[in-house]
């Protein structure tokens, strides 16, 4: 009996170490083995061993310069959680309607730390073998969907400013980005040229939850040649986001209003 208890404690200890490593990578952070060791207090050999197992399981993936981040399996598990599944199920009929009306690729974007995660994607384009509509991630500032999320997330902006202190390229881009985010908040809609690929434009709008905070963004992406003036479809995108927000409010029995009104520094 004691041996069984010891084995059970060992299993819990291994699981606890895995959770500690995953916690380090939460919020979209990328970290090295050295950084993970510093945050967890685990020895390098243990961290290397645990990371190898997590990479094989697709819970963690290795990126450039020996850094690690959460992998696609974690994102699939998160997006399958009841609250997020409810949002996707509620939003999907509206997303399909928007796709039919615009013939563009429609995204439901959600924030994870400094990244935008595409929780749903409606398109006629056949996905490539390695693509996954529920796990694609990009920095918030790098996509129209993400910029709308960033415009209403003051803590994400503060984090970006901290990162800019270490990056001349990012620091130089902040003034223009600040102006764009202010425009998004004034107009309730964001238009982003060369979104993901040259010659591709996106139009995005915020989805607010029952407490008035932003919970997602809706975006439609299309070639510039198809819709030369993106403002012509802006009302449709805005209506889609408002319909989803209203349905969320009805389910909770409360009104929906944007909660972030502060001017970002």
TrEMBL record:
Keywords: DNA-binding, Transcription, Transcription regulation. It holds the Pfam family HTH_IclR. One of its GO terms (molecular function) is DNA binding. Gene3D superfamilies: 3.30.450.40, Winged helix-like DNA-binding domain superfamily/Winged helix DNA-binding domain. InterPro entries: GAF-like_dom_sf (IPR029016), HTH_MetabolicPath_Reg (IPR050707), Tscrpt_reg_IclR_C (IPR014757), Tscrpt_reg_IclR_N (IPR005471), WH-like_DNA-bd_sf (IPR036388), WH_DNA-bd_sf (IPR036390). Residues 12-72 form the HTH iclR-type domain. One of its GO terms (biological process) is negative regulation of DNA-templated transcription. It comes from the Bacteria. Residues 73-254 form the IclR-ED domain. PANTHER family: HELIX-TURN-HELIX TRANSCRIPTIONAL REGULATOR, ICLR FAMILY (PTHR30136), HTH-TYPE TRANSCRIPTIONAL REPRESSOR ALLR (PTHR30136:SF24). This is Transcriptional regulator, IclR family.
């Amino acid at each position: 009996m004691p041996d069984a208890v010891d084995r059970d404690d060992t299993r819990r200890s291994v699981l606890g170490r895995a959770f500690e490593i995953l916690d380090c990578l939460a919020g979209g952070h990328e970290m090295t083995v050295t950084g993970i060791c510093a945050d967890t207090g685990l020895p390098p050999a243990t961290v290397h061993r645990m990371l190898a197992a997590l990479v094989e399981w697709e819970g963690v993936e290795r990126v450039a310069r020996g850094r690690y981040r959460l992998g696609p399996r974690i994102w699939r598990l998160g997006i399958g959680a009841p609250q997020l599944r409810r949002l996707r199920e509620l939003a999907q009929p509206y997303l399909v309607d928007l796709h039919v009306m615009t013939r563009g690729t429609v995204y439901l974007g959600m924030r994870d730390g400094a990244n935008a995660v595409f929780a749903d994607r409606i398109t006629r384009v056949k996905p490539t073998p390695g693509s996954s509509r529920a796990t694609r991630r990009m920095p918030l500032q790098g996509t129209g969907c993400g910029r709308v999320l960033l415009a209403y997330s003051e803590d994400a902006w503060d984090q970006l400013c901290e990162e800019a202190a270490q990056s001349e390229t990012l620091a130089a881009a902040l003034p223009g980005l600040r102006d764009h985010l202010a425009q998004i908040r004034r107009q309730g809609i964001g238009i982003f040229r060369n979104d993901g690929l040259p010659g591709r434009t996106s139009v995005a709008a915020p989805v607010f939850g029952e407490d008035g905070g932003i919970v997602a963004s809706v975006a439609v992406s299309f070639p510039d040649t198809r819709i030369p003036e993106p403002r012509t479809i802006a009302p449709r995108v805005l209506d889609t986001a408002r319909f989803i927000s209203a349905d969320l409010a009805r389910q909770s029995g409360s009104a929906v209003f944007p909660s972030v009104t502060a001017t970002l520094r």
